Amino acid sequence: MILTVTLNTALDLTYGVPELVPHASHRVGDMAERPGGKGLNVARVLSALGQATVVTGFAGGSTGAVLRELLAQLAPRDTTGTDTRAAAVTPATTTPLSTPAPAPITDALVTVAGNTRRTIAVVDRATGDTTQLNEPGPLVTADEWAALLDRYEELLTGADAVALCGSLPPGIHVGAYAELIRPARAAGIPVLLDTSGEPLRRGIAARPDLIKPNAEELAQLTGSREPLRATHDARRRGAHGVIASLGPDGMLAVTPDGVWRASPPARVLGNPTGAGDSAVAGLLSGLVEGLSWPDRLRRAVALSTATVLSPTAGDFDRAAYEELLPGVDVEEHTAAV
Amino acid sequence: MILTVTLNTALDLTYGVPELVPHASHRVGDMAERPGGKGLNVARVLSALGQATVVTGFAGGSTGAVLRELLAQLAPRDTTGTDTRAAAVTPATTTPLSTPAPAPITDALVTVAGNTRRTIAVVDRATGDTTQLNEPGPLVTADEWAALLDRYEELLTGADAVALCGSLPPGIHVGAYAELIRPARAAGIPVLLDTSGEPLRRGIAARPDLIKPNAEELAQLTGSREPLRATHDARRRGAHGVIASLGPDGMLAVTPDGVWRASPPARVLGNPTGAGDSAVAGLLSGLVEGLSWPDRLRRAVALSTATVLSPTAGDFDRAAYEELLPGVDVEEHTAAV
C-alpha cells in the first residue's frame, strides 16, 4: 500500500457564484463539500488507479468528524459520462477501456482536540476564476505530534511508498517533515515530499527520494526562475530526484537515473486545482508498479492534464486520461548542466 | 417569554482577511463561528436584556449540530471592557451601571434531515468592508413543516410576544409567515414579522402587529423611496404598525397609536450587521415590559446604534447602549399624511 501523510487536512468547500464582487452579498448557487488536504487528494486519485492507500495526519472537532464521514463514503465515481471539454481533445476515438476497480482508502488519521480547518473555493461560474479562503489549521499539541509519529512508524512497516503532503498546522515545528523522512529512508521506503517554503527547505535536508515543486515553489527554494538550473540546484540541496511541474509545459525530471522533459499532447483549458496532487499519485503508483521513469512521467502528466479537464475541481477525467496517456511526449536530456 | 422563529437558521462564520482580492488565495487571519439567522440574533440580544426567550425553526445535519452546541453554550459576555469606538461617543461619562443577568435561551428547534446552511462574512480588516457568501438552506419537507407548525402552536401558549424572522429555506411555501401569523393573532399574542420580498408581501396580508423593514425592503414592498409615504402604504397593506429602520437616520414608526421619528444622538461608524435584529429585540422587550411607544423606540434605536459600535458583528456594546439611551430623540408627528 501507499501511505499518504496530511498534517493539515481540510474540509474543502466549493461555492459557485455568478461573480465574486468584493463588499457585496452573494447567494451561493451550487456547493460541494469534500475531504481535502493534498495527501487526501493524492489518496483519492491512487484509489481510482487501483492502488490501496492508507491516509494519516490529523483530524479533529466537528469539521474533522465531517471530513472523516466523507472519507468513509468515498465511492467509485462513474467516469463513463461524456465531458464536453475532454471530448474536445480527441472527439472521435473514445472507446470503452477497462477501468481498475477503486482500491480502498484506509483512515488512519490521528484525532486532535482542535477543529480541522475549512477551505473555501469561490468559483465565478461565468469565467471559472477561483478565489480561495483558507482557515488556519488547529493548534496541534506536542502529545498529538508524538501520537502521529507513533502511528506513522507503525504504518511504515506495511508501506511500499510514502507521500508527505502540504502545509504544517500551527504547533508543528518547521522541521517536522525531516523527522518523517528519516525513518522512511532508514527502512528503505521511497518517500516523496510535496510542500513549500521553509518546511520544504528543511525537509530536503533529510534527503527525500523525490520532491515535486511547481515553478513558484522551486523559485522560492532556489532563487532561480530558470527551471533546469533551479531543478539541479534543488537536487544539490538534498533531494535525490526533483520533478518540477511546469503547468501547461508539463514536467522536468532531474533524477539519479537521468533527466527528462515530459509534455502533454495539447494545451487544455480548465481548473488546475489538484493537478499537482494527481501528478504525485501518478509518480508514486508508477514507482510501486515498477514502471520506467518515462512511463511514470507519462502517467503523471496525463493525470494532471486530465485533472485540469475535469468538471469537478480535483477529480480527473478518466476518459481524457486514457486518451492523453499515449500522446505525452517524453524527451531525455543528455546534456550535462 | 418571547418566542422567536428562524426558519432558515445559519452557522455564521466571520473570516478576517487583510483585503479580499478576487481570484487570489487568502489565509484567514482570525475567525469566529456562531449560531445565526435573524431570530437567533434577536434571542441573543433579548437574553442580554434579561428577557427569557425560546427559539424555534429548523436545524439539521452536521452544521445544525454545531449551531445547537454553540446555542447551548451562549453565556454572559463581559461587556465591561473598554471599546475605543464606544468610548469616543461620550469619553468622560463612563460609569459602572447595573447589568441585568442574561436570561435563558431555550432551544426548541425542529430537527430536519437537511444540512443547516453556513453564511460567511469576509471582513477586510483594513477597512471593515464585508463580503457576504450565503449557502442555500436545506430543503425542508412537508412533514418537517407540519412538525414545525405543531411545535409553534404548543410554544405559543406560553409566549408574550412572537418574532418571525428572516428568509425561507427551500421547500417552504412563500405564504408560510401568514400561516404562522394567524394563530398568534387568534390567541391575541403580539407578532412581529421581519422578512423581505415576497414572504413579507404575503405575510403582511395576515395582519401582523408589527413589521420592521429597512428602507430597501420598504421600497421593494411599496415601490416608494419616500419613507413616510412608503410606511403608510405598508400599513394599508395590512401591518398594524410599521417601524421603518432608516439606518443612521434612526427609525420612523407609524402605529395605530401615533407616528414617531426616533434619531440617535450622534452618527456613529461601525458594522451595521445585526443592527436590525437588535432593534427587533428592543421593540419586543419594550412591548412585553409595557413601555410607551417613545420608550420602545428609544430602546430600539439605542440598541441598534450600540450594535453598530460593537467590535463583534451582531453583538451590542452595553456601555454604549446605556450611554446612548437617554440621548435618543423621539419626536411625534401630528400632521396627517
General description of the model:
The structure is a homodimer of 337-residue chains. By secondary structure, chain A is of the alpha/beta class. Chain A has a single domain (2-333), classed as Ribokinase (UDP-N-acetylmuramoyl-L-alanine:D-glutamate ligase). In chain A, 35% of the residues lie in helices and 24% in strands. The first copy, chain A, is built from eleven helices and 16 strands. Chain A has helices at residues 38-48, 61-73, 84-87, 142-156, 176-186, 197-204, 215-222, 227-236, 275-288, 293-309, 318-324; strands spanning 2-6, 10-17, 25-27, 30-36, 53-60, 105-107, 110-112, 117-124, 130-134, 161-165, 191-194, 210-211, 241-245, 251-255, 258-263, 329-333. In chain A, strands 1, 5, 6, 7, 10, 11, 12, 13, 14, 15 and 16 form an eleven-stranded mixed beta sheet that branches. The A-B interface holds A 15, 17, 20-29, 31, 62, 65-66, 69, 120, 122, 124, 129-136 and B 15, 17, 20-29, 31, 62, 65-66, 69, 120, 122, 124, 129-136.
Please sum up the structure shown.
The structure is a homodimer of 337-residue chains. The first copy, chain A, is α/β, with parallel strands linked by helices and 337 residues long.
Tally of helical runs of chain A: 11
Order of helical and strand elements of chain A: EEEEHEHHEEEEHEHEHEHHEEEHHHE
What is the CA-CA span between the terminal residues of chain A? 36 Å
Major pleated sheet of chain A: 11 strands, mixed
Strand content of chain A: 15-25%
CATH superfamily of chain A: Ribokinase
**Multimeric state:** homodimer
What is the average of the pLDDT values of chain A? 91
Q: How large, in whole angstroms, is the Cα Rg of chain A?
A: 19 Å
Number of strands of chain A: 16
CATH T-level fold name of chain A:
UDP-N-acetylmuramoyl-L-alanine:D-glutamate ligase
